[in-house]
Automatic annotation (TrEMBL), chains A, B:
Major location category of this protein: cytoplasm
Family: Belongs to the PhoU family.
Protein name: Phosphate-specific transport system accessory protein PhoU
Name of the gene this protein is made from: phoU
Organism (species): Microbacterium pullorum
Keyword check for Hydrolase: no
Described function: Plays a role in the regulation of phosphate uptake.
């Protein structure tokens, strides 16, 4: 029974990694479509989001079957519950990649990326891709040192998010209302994307340390290193 | 054992209703603080969000204990898993109320509500309060006819969300960049709030109908009535 359980868990883990990799591809394409106004690339992201959603639903079904058939307790139970939560976060990250692609499509043939913020958004896109890629690696390897890398990227994204608002609200901002709307939404999407990744990273850290309620403090400790 | 399980479920349900009621209070105060620039009310929402977060964590712990001790299967198992998801959505709705209160605080002593959009945001606020209140009632009574009421309010919120962008992007929009940012963020928060409520409503509907995968279609059917 224990053997079967561990095979099931490996299956769950493999699927989480697969979804995280699909999310990495999605955010990479979405942010490139946003900075290059590549509407074909944007369409691809929008179309493929259904695959991520379907895979998340399949994974949830598998997790529920494991709960029903193998009735795990203690740490094993928490792993399965955590998988359900991770799947929800990954699915939401896929949605956010889709939203960024939708901004590209909405403004096409105009550029979605607001003038004067091109470098900022290219940097935010690169950081989100790094976050997603690191998250997939964390889920695959369970190497908790990667949590800190995600946290660092998330901090940088927070700073860039604030800098977007500073720019938009400064006196020399010359963007039209459309550019202000795009900058506000896109920046928010980037920040939320990394937020979800951090929340997943916390769960992996919890599973590694076994300490559910103290995950925030554990992360704080890691940050201080 | 069955008796114990049902008592546990009633406890879970009672706690979900309690959290939904706290979220209703939060969104009511947040939207009123936003339209009246009442910073004290906004502070109250920001401070009390921790209570919602704590209650969601306690509920999750209870649900995990039920899974471990009573090892439910079939529909019972799905009820507990659904409770975990509903708790995550309610917690997120509380966060969104907090974000709206933060907008109020950030602009104070200026008005956060953008000129020319006052009536729209008052209406959005009222709809979100209605959505939250109906959701608490749905969780308490399991009366699935309430799902349709939430869906209708969510549709109206979607229309208002689109109308905010139409206004902001129209030629006679005279708002500064700050007003454009506030309108964009606040409108997005209102729309997301109702989105989460709808996602909870779908889960309750699923529990009532027992059909997990077809919940979207079932909702579509309800909409056509």
């Amino acid at each position: 029974m224990r053997e079967v359980f561990h095979q099931s868990l490996e299956d769950v883990q493999g699927r989480l990694v697969e979804i995280a990799e699909l999310v990495t591809v999605a955010i990479d394409k979405a942010t490139r479509s946003f900075s290059t106004s590549d509407v074909a690339l944007a369409e691809e992201v929008i179309e493929n989001d259904q695959i991520i959603d379907d895979k998340a639903i399949e994974l949830d079904e598998l997790a529920i079957q494991i709960l029903a058939r193998q009735q795990p307790v203690a740490r094993d139970l928490r792993i399965v519950v955590a998988a359900l939560r991770v799947s929800a976060s990954l699915e939401r990250m896929g949605d956010i990649a889709e939203h960024i692609a939708q901004l590209t499509r909405m403004r096409f043939p105009e550029r979605a990326i607001p003038r004067g913020l091109k470098n900022t958004f290219i940097k935010m896109g690169e950081l989100d891709v790094e976050v997603a890629r690191t998250l997939a690696e964390l889920l695959r390897t369970e190497d908790v040192s990667l949590v800190e890398r995600i946290r660092t990227a998330e901090d940088k994204l927070d700073d860039l998010h604030i800098s977007v608002f500073e720019k938009v609200l400064s006196e020399n901002w010359q963007g039209e209302a459309a550019a202000t709307v795009d900058a506000t939404l896109a920046s928010r999407y980037h920040e939320r994307f990394a937020d979800h990744a951090e929340s997943v990273a916390k769960k992996v850290l919890y599973l590694a340390t076994g300490d559910w309620t103290a995950d925030t403090e554990t992360l704080e400790t890691l940050r201080l290193q």
